[in-house]
Amino acid sequence: MRHSSSASGFTSPTWLGTPAAITGTSTPFTTTRTDTEVTITGYTGSETSVTIPDQIDGLPVTSIGTSAFQDGTGLTSITIPAGVTSIGLMAFSGCTSLTSITLPEGVMTIGDGAFMGCTGLTSVIIPVGVTSIAGGAFGSCTGLTSVTIPAGVTRIGLGAFFGCTSLTSVTLPDSITSIGDRAFMDCGGLTSVTIPAGVTSIGVSTFLNCFSLTSVMLPDSLSSIADGAFEGCTSLTSLTVDADNANYGSIEGVLFDKNQTTLILYPGGKAGSYTIPDSVTRIGVGAFQGSSGLTSVKIPAGVTSIGDSAFNGCPSLTRVSFLGNAPTTTGEGVFDGAALGFTVLYPSGASGFTSPTWLGYPAAIASTTFTSTRTDTEVTITGYTGSETSVTIPDQIDGLPVTHIGTSAFQGGSSLTSVTIPNSVTSIAGFAFQGCSGLTSVTIPNSVTHIGDGAFNGCFGLTSLTVDADNANYSSIEGVLFDKNQSTLILYPTGKSGSYTIPDGVTSIGDWAFMGCTSLTSVTIPAGVTSIGDRVFSGCTSLTSITIPDGVTSIGDWAFEVCTGLTSIALPNSVITLGDGAFYGCSSLTTVTIPASVTGIGNSAFNGCSSLTRVSFLGNAPTTIGDGVFDGAALGFTVIYPSGASGFTSPTWLGYPAAIDINTIFSTTRTDTEVT
């Protein structure tokens, strides 16, 4: 009920038990008053720009009451007079068009939600006399970009600035001692905040979902940080604690208690793998929650407690490796939301774990960082689960000697730069280190008796294989692997470049020996070699020259496959067989002369040689010849054979154009342009 200020018989704030207020003479405001002052309780006008009077009916206006202008969506600016000392609960909440408001120096109190939802408000200067910013005072002011908080304010209340999504920075005065629950929650634009030296507590979810916040400095005065204070800060990479703080400490941006026995918070923006320090015995509630870039964690043997949701919502987390027994206390939802394929790994013999699942999560035994199979007497390494780039393979696991490195055990470990193989290892299986492109050198210990085919295939950075001098089966010269007597070249490191002369004394080149040596340009093979094995030079794309000596009788399957730099090849008269795909994909090869000694050519031997225009046979047709031998040759390709040679036909042979070599019928002279 409203009544005229001059009307008699009414009382305020109630009349006959009904709320009652004076309608100021010729004013659009409703009020309540005492004998000495007036409180504005409502606005009945239609103006968008409002100036509140300093007096009504001769009494000073000192307060703006609860919800006085609430949901005044048409208001764009308000001027408050100097005599106002108090702005009440929800006074201007929901004034979405309000872009400007001046708070006079006399204001001492700003009530809960006073400006909540004023989405058009871009800046606020809080008067010097204010000592506390009440709960939700500026909540959801989504347009607010700057706020000036004066010296003298000691407390930021519950949700005071929650949802101020345009607020990018805020400077808190040294007078502040407490920052309340959810004070800056959902301030997604906030990139930095300076927490002053006097602050003693940070409330629950204070900076929740401030996803642009990158770093925070915590002062020496801080004694309490509530759960979830920095949860959802997905760009936060560092929490740094003042060295004089008696309650907290930090290591590389991670927050701990002072003694570093409790890991409190791992910043949500840090990425990659993380090893928890050995001093830690407890991992706090939500300590790693929402760390979207975290990939793996090592938990030391001393950890006995993991809090609820400690690793919840870490979508890149594939592995957690425990180095000791299971914690005696483990909370709810600890690893919920981890990556597909996530596994808990624990050491053999550790108590408290179960397999294939533990607490509902996939779990498996992992001896240190290796997976393995074993018999009663020995262990075979079957895989590596760690993240280190320099790896030392143990000589024992659970008291059993490590004797074998299994097939593909380290395959695809592109980040691996060095590996130490213990003297207990007797065999390195095929493809064991295939694709370890960062590996630069390997030392083979004296215990190794067997190295399988392709063990180091695709190790494009490998330039040296060094064999222990006491090894009875292998040796090395300048980083190249041989048998002990150096009569067989076993492996030329893929990363070596330039030309290479195989030492005299070598009589055999092992299968795969030079495979994938993409920087190898030329090779000279000594006279004693009688065969070139399977895939020996496969994929040597820079190889332009090779000298094959007399005495070589066979060239193995796919021996020169995809040697795309090879333009010509001289086959000695001793060669009898060319294997399947022997020169497959040699796209720069233009002509080939096949000696009379050749009796067999395998399937696809010259298939895909797209520049090949002529193959000249010097004798009879081979007695054995495979399918698709010259498929994919150049346009105009022709098989040339000598007059009188048996087994050939003309104008085609096996479907390929064929012709007698004219030089075997007539004697001729020729210039560059004609023949006589």
What profile does the largest beta sheet have? 8 strands, mixed
Overall number of strands: 64
Average pLDDT level? 91
Which structural category do the helix and sheet elements fall into?
mainly beta
Q: What spatial form do the alpha-carbon principal axes imply?
A: elongated
Chart the SSEs and their pairings:
Layout: E1 2-4, E2 14-15, E3 18-19, E4 21-23, E5 29-33, E6 38-43, E7 49-51, E8 55-56, E9 59-64, E10 77-79, E11 86-87, E12 100-102, E13 109-110, E14 123-125, E15 132-133, E16 146-148, E17 155-156, E18 169-171, E19 178-179, E20 192-194, E21 201-202, E22 215-218, E23 224-225, E24 238-241, E25 248-251, E26 254-257, E27 262-265, E28 272-275, E29 282-283, E30 294-299, E31 305-306, E32 319-322, E33 329-330, E34 343-346, E35 357-358, E36 361-365, E37 370-374, E38 379-384, E39 390-392, E40 396-397, E41 400-405, E42 418-420, E43 427-428, E44 441-444, E45 450-451, E46 464-467, E47 474-477, E48 480-483, E49 488-491, E50 498-501, E51 508-509, E52 520-524, E53 531-532, E54 545-547, E55 554-555, E56 568-570, E57 577-578, E58 591-594, E59 600-601, E60 614-617, E61 624-625, E62 638-641, E63 652-653, E64 656-660
Parallel strand pairs: 1-4, 6-9, 7-10, 9-11, 10-12, 11-13, 14-16, 15-17, 17-19, 18-20, 19-21, 20-22, 21-23, 22-24, 27-29, 28-30, 29-31, 30-32, 31-33, 32-34, 34-36, 38-41, 39-42, 41-43, 42-44, 43-45, 44-46, 49-51, 50-52, 52-54, 53-55, 55-57, 56-58, 57-59, 58-60, 59-61, 60-62, 62-64
Antiparallel strand pairs: 2-3, 4-5, 5-6, 8-9, 25-26, 26-27, 35-36, 37-38, 40-41, 47-48, 48-49, 63-64
